[in-house]
Amino acid sequence: MKLPKFISLLGILALLLPFNGFVRAAEAGAAVPAPAAEILRGVHRIVFLGDSITQGGDYVTDVECWLLAHGVRTEVLNLGLGSETASDLTPEENAGHLKAHGFGRPFVSERLARALAATKPDLLFACYGMNDGGSLPPDESGTKRFAEAVTHLRAAALKAGVKRVVICTPPVEDAKGNAQKKFHDENLTRYTTWLLTKRADGWDVVDIHTPMRQALAAGRAKDPAFQFAKDGVHPGRKGHWLMAREILTQAFGAKLDDVAAAENLFPAHGVEIRKLVHDRMVLLFNSWMTQIGHKRPGVAGAPGAKPGLPPAEAKAKAVDLAQQIQALLNGGKP
């Protein structure tokens, strides 16, 4: 893949100020796939919503790295929140989490309107189901409630002015032979089956669950100890790259068969670039979550939690990180 050839000043400004969806491919020296050009047309800001897997942010970082490597300078915000569900749980359904962790699971419905109003995304990715799958009934009634919650999320986002909403099927829950946890992944499979039917209704749906299930089975056939997630829920870097790869290939038309990790998207300084992109994501996450507010303890924006930087300070630090990223993209040093 060729290194994007940016004019230094314009490149830095492009990193800081999202504009008109994507950089001119000829100037960037990168081949932007036609599906990406279409989905990114007029997109100034992309927001990711989800649970702790999204908040962890590795797959979001990897997606942004691909955008950078292709000259795309659309702002990417990660607003995932640990423990969150798409569905509103009953007190009885939330009792186990409350007992185990001292707080009930938060529901995205509590903060959705504020998040959309504050960030005004043009493109929204939402990845829920993992926490719903472990909390809702293990039958079609649970699937119905998850479906209603996701339908509401999508409708609310479109009503708020989001140009395009992409729903991701949930990752797998790896029970590792534990029969008591088997229901969890069965729920996730039901949610995936339902979500995939919505493509016929014009929904944008990226299927993460099925490729991850297939990759897990293939890996375990070669090595019985193979796993994406040590705890069965939260994927490591390989699992996050798989998630990013499916988003990039299914939503943006990316060709990634020979790319093993986001660092490899760049001809040089891939490790350093990805770290700076991740650092900027965390910086902006803490600032935006503080502005939006939520009820999940221990995360910026919750009552009593350490707040993120005020917007002006966060922007200034983001500018500095953008300059370091640009220097590396130009083949220099940060």
Throw out a few tags for this protein.
single chain, 334 residues, alpha/beta, Rossmann fold, five-stranded parallel β-sheet, 14 helices
CATH 2nd-level architecture: 3-Layer(aba) Sandwich
Largest sheet: 5 strands, parallel
Number of helices: 14
Strand content: 5-15%
Q: In angstroms, what is the radius of gyration?
A: 19 Å
What's the β-strand tally? 5
Low-confidence stretches: 1-29
Report on the architecture of this protein.
This protein has helices at residues 8-16, 25-28, 34-40, 52-56, 58-69, 91-101, 112-119, 130-133, 140-159, 182-197, 209-222, 237-252, 270-292, 311-329; strands at 45-50, 75-78, 123-127, 164-168, 204-206. The chain has 334 residues and is an alpha/beta fold. It has a single domain, classed as 3-Layer(aba) Sandwich (Rossmann fold). α10 (182-197) links the parallel β4 and β5 (204-206). The chain is globular and about 55 Å long. Residues 1-29 have low confidence and may be disordered.
